[in-house]
Amino acid sequence: MRTKKIRGLKRRQKNIDSWFEANKHINLKLLEESGYYYCKSKVDPWSNLYFDAFYPSDYRKQLFSRLMDIYDNWKSELEAGFQDYYLAIWVFDKRFIESQVVAGIGERISYYENMWKGHETNVPFPKKLFNNEQDRIKLFSWVSADDMDFVYERDYVDTSIEDYYSPKDYYEDQRYYRKLIESNAPFRLIGDKGEGEKVFTLKRGNVWIGKNNDTPTRCII
After folding, report:
1. How many whole angstroms separate alpha carbon 151 and alpha carbon 200?
2. Residue 106: which of 180, 36, 21, 158 has the closest Cα?
3. Which of 17, 96, 108, 152 gives 35 a disulfide partner, CB atoms 3.0 to 4.6 angstroms apart?
């Protein structure tokens, strides 16, 4: 997609500050109700753009620092209320706007622990992108994995033009599906013994799952 230029970057600093103030404490009530809680690094106006927009490097550094601050705050709050929990920072390279702090309790602990399949050879964390936080980065263990999009074949073959708001949307989706087939896009079969539903797996980049080295043993990635 095309990139839309953001103007008035200095004025956007207030948005980062407001985002941090709104997320620096974990909502324990929602955590207990749902079993999980997270905070993405999505800040206006970048999060509201139709076209892809990338944070300027200085803003990305600031957001990364704030994610680490949020992690530290949440860790203290979780330790005060729970013996067993999951807590990690997920840092995406190509899609940094999806980077987030994630917390889980109960069944969500094992869910998150098994969510990412680490690379056989770990990709080093991109410290140069966040050279303002060299010391804190060293306090974390970082496990690299693929940042994937999962596209379910059923969303394209089990639909008809009547399922769409407009014929244009239907034909655009069908063209996209044909491109996946023609390009031999990688896929998985989800089901027993390798049979079942076909899901295309599209790599978008890397993601690093980071946890502070003194996080409880149960939270090891």
Report:
1. 5
2. 36
3. 108
119: left (phi over 0), alpha (psi -120 to 50) or beta: beta
Per-residue model confidence as pLDDT tens digits over 98-110: 999 999 999 999 9
Query: Rounded to two decimals, what is the model's pTM?
Result: 0.79
pLDDT in tens, 159-180: 899 999 899 999 999 999 999 9
Nearest Cα neighbor of 11 from 44, 49, 47 is 44
Longest dimension (CA), the chain: 56
- Please give the helix or strand (H or E) that residue 144 lies within, else none: strand 140-152
Integer Cα distance of 71 and 24 in angstroms: 8
d(CA 33, CA 185) in angstroms, rounded, equals 39
Distance in angstroms (rounded) separating the CA atoms of residues 10 and 30: 34
CA atoms within 13 A on the CB side of 19: 23
